[in-house]
Amino acid sequence: MQEKNFITVALPKGKLFGLSAELLKKVGWTAEGLYEKSRKLIITNDAAKLKFIITKTADVPTYVEYGAADIGIIGKDVIDESGKNVYELLDLGFGKCHLMMAVPKDKKRARLEDYAQTRVATKFPRIAEKFFTAQGMQMEYIKLNGSIELGPIVGLSESIVDIVETGTTLRENNLEEIVTIMNSTARLIANRVSYKLKFERINALVNDLSKILTAK
Ligand code: PRP
């Protein structure tokens, strides 16, 4: 748990950072020097009693689960993959994308089941396994940390399970979506204890953000 009077907010580097910082700023939750490329690990606004930490995308749920951050903003896909025990307070609507399975166009098989027992490259092995197990399919999962689309192109795997936002990466690499696994948007999450102990401020934030989101 962080200092009693301060709220620590974990924000992810990368695609969600700008929109997250912009949205929080609209409700007065900001700090001087809060920008993605800053090398400062903690950016504090003493007057507003706020601290921001900028972390690797996949680590946001970890900071929040352990209470090193009271709240955070992160994609639903990353929350589910992390398996972390955090409160999901609000769907922020931005960061729309979906998680899907794709294969090289020229190696497409007739049915989903035809890929059983093959290798799938992914940054999301937990979600992928849950999905394929539900389909009664056993797969071999190869964990990658980025550029997942390369997997089937160089013969590392038969398929990928990855995020699609605009579809450009799939198109440019001659991959075709086979099945959608889940849809995702950015969520406001909270540490379970922080949510109780700092309820007033966190709840006020949820209400202020909700107003902005419904006004859109
Ligand atoms: C993500 C994702 C895809 C791409 C999808 O990668 O893993 O590769 O974006 O976006 P698109 O549908 O708009 O092309 P990211 O840019 O986060 O980098 P990474 O490959 O290093 O994970």
Give a summary of the structure in a few sentences.
This protein has helices at residues 15-26, 60-65, 76-82, 125-134, 150-153, 168-172, 192-197, 199-215; strands spanning 7-12, 42-45, 50-55, 71-75, 87-91, 97-104, 119-122, 140-143, 159-164, 175-184, 186-190. The chain is α/β, with parallel strands linked by helices. The strands form two sheets. It has a six-stranded mixed sheet.
Task: Please name the defining characteristics of this protein.
five-stranded mixed beta sheet, 8 helices, binds 1-O-pyrophosphono-5-O-phosphono-alpha-D-ribofuranose, alpha/beta, six-stranded mixed beta sheet, 11 strands
Describe the structure.
The protein is of the alpha/beta class and 216 residues long. The protein contains eight helices and eleven strands. The two termini are 34 Å apart. The site of 1-O-pyrophosphono-5-O-phosphono-alpha-D-ribofuranose has 12 residues, from strand 9 and helix 6.
Set out the fold topology.
Elements lengths: L6 E6 L2 H12 L15 E4 L4 E6 L4 H6 L5 E5 H7 L4 E5 L5 E8 L14 E4 L2 H10 L5 E4 L6 H4 L5 E6 L3 H5 L2 E10 L1 E5 L1 H6 L1 H17 L1
Parallel strand pairs: 1-3, 1-4, 7-8, 7-9
Antiparallel strand pairs: 2-3, 4-11, 5-11, 6-9, 6-10
The structure holds 1-O-pyrophosphono-5-O-phosphono-alpha-D-ribofuranose.
